[in-house]
Amino acid sequence: MTARPEGHPMNGLEMFSLQGRTAVVTGATRGIGLAMATALAEAGADIIAVGSTPPAPESQIARAIADRGRGFEALGADLADRDAVARLAGQLREREPDILINNGGTIRRHPAATHRDDDWDHVLDVNLRSQFVLSREVGRGFVERGRGKVIFTASLLSFQGGIMVPGYTASKSAIAGLTKALASEWATSGVNVNAIAPGYIATDNTTALREDPVRNEAILGRIPAGRWGAAADLAGATVFLSSAASDYVNGIVLPVDGGWLAR
Fold this sequence. Notes:
Blueprint lengths: L21 E5 L4 H12 L3 E6 L8 H8 L4 E5 L5 H14 L3 E4 L14 H29 L2 E6 L12 H21 L4 E8 L8 H5 L1 H10 L12 H8 L10 E4 L7
């Protein structure tokens, strides 16, 4: 997204338009990623959707983008497979997107005292290493062209410790740091790097929490908004950080949490 000259006026909703832009969304087939990709398409962007396997033409994400009249391309990569991530990075560099949404992630729930090394390695590979590699390779093109938006999906556990998810917490805390590190290097090249920290969102990753009566009640009791978030609650923040409206926003981790951190 071309940086605007200082003081150049932009009218109302124009600054949120993504017409003519291409956005990559990893983990795009369901939950938060699906909602993010759909919101970007609503704002005018063509979508490159990345799943563990390429989303099929009849998939929900493909239909959602087609219904909005935007271009759609499906790519597949196992984000725990380093060779697959390298291939995906090369494919994305060739396509020269304008926006990279690093959303694909995973979680393994075990007490720290019995948390296995392979679970730790898997979570860190998916949630941190793959996202750095994709950001580095796509971001290099952004820096060369003098424009681009990188958005990470962080977490409330970028700020807090969590329970029984040491690998996940470590990875999401690192994502907050990586967001700041890349923003510090790339802002002068017209590249914005930021993150969104979803609160407790009703997705597959939180099924176990919502089905546990004690944990569910404790979580709801701390959310000022009084409800679990929906994936669609991430739409506005995603479009904002992908658009010219955020051209002077660098290195933030934006909570969308119903007020959880405020309490």
